[in-house]
Design goal:
Blueprint lengths: L12 H10 L1 H9 L8 E5 L5 H9 L4 E6 L2 H14 L4 E4 L12 E7 L8 H9 L2 E13 L16 H19 L10 H7 L3 E12 L5 H18 L5 H10 L16 E11 L4
Length: about 280
């Protein structure tokens, strides 16, 4: 992760681990499409605490896998995770995108939910593409379907709470993008952006994450963290009824809370955009 002005990434380490593990089915499926030919060096740019990087190291045990992030505390968590899982992982501190020039060339560059944190997304993709060896692959995870956790009618408050929360988060995302330094509007046709970065065979694939109710402890904790963060960020943008519903969902003593609901689930699809540097 980069040092985004709105986020203290180090303080969010536990949340990032829980989220990475909860959504890991899409990572496994996305990495299966990267197996031919086997990469010799892999960069995970914006690796955070290393969930994806360790999965890459497990999937490609013969590769040199380097977790790259601008937050040393998160890289320390990645090193601890790799040691616990018994996989080979290197780490390198580098800001995104300013520090990309410090990185070695690679056969595979992976980056998930990082590019949208910089103003000039096209410029960032072009700099990432420049890290590829001939024939190498750039894989960018951005977008997909909105995540669902709850029924439309949760038994209290107005039905459709989650749809209204999505609208509030989309509006906040637009504000975040507009306030970024050097923010440049771009049509987010990711394959077209990858082609504009000089890459070929650009295409997108989406991968399902389907964790049915009743949700397991780790994913359930990730859902709670998401709602807590949303409640803190959107308090002034929600009507009183929706704020009250959120407070009830986050009250661990309430039988209808996220911690205790038997109908809590996790369902979404994450989209990965692939492209290659020409071989010759």
């Amino acid at each position: 992760m980069d040092h985004d002005h709105d986020f203290d990434w180090a303080a969010m380490a536990d949340m990032l681990v829980d989220e990475g593990e909860a959504y890991s089915p899409y990572l496994v499926a996305a990495f299966d499409r990267l197996a031919d030919p086997e990469p010799k060096r892999i960069l995970d740019i914006g690796s955070g605490p290393g969930v994806a990087a360790c999965l890459l190291a497990e999937r490609f045990p013969g590769a040199e896998v380097i977790a790259v992030d601008g937050t040393p505390e998160l890289l320390a968590r990645a090193e601890e995770r790799a040691g616990r899982l018994g996989v080979r992982l290197q780490t390198q501190v580098a800001e995104f995108p300013a520090g990309l020039g410090e990185l070695p060339e690679a056969d595979l560059v992976w980056s998930a939910n990082v590019v949208h944190h910089v103003g000039d997304q096209q410029g960032a993709l072009t700099r990432m593409a420049a890290l590829l060896r001939p024939g190498g692959t750039l894989a960018i995870a951005e977008g997909g379907l909105p995540t669902r956790w709850l029924p439309r009618d949760i038994g209290f408050g107005r039905p459709g709470l989650q749809l209204r929360l999505e609208v509030a988060m989309a509006e906040r995302f637009d504000r975040m993008r507009a306030e970024l330094p050097d923010s440049a509007p771009v049509t987010e046709d990711w394959p077209a952006m990858l082609r504009a970065a000089g890459l070929v065979e650009a295409h997108s694939r989406s991968f399902l994450v389907d964790r049915p109710a009743p949700l397991e402890e780790g994913p359930r904790r990730s859902v709670r963290q998401w709602f807590e963060r949303l409640r803190g960020m959107q308090a002034d943008h929600l009507d009183p009824d929706d704020r009250a519903a959120l407070d009830r969902l986050l009250n661990p003593d309430d039988p209808q809370s996220i911690d205790r609901r038997p109908d809590l689930f996790l369902l979404t699809a994450r989209t990965v955009h692939y492209a290659h540097r020409p071989a010759g």
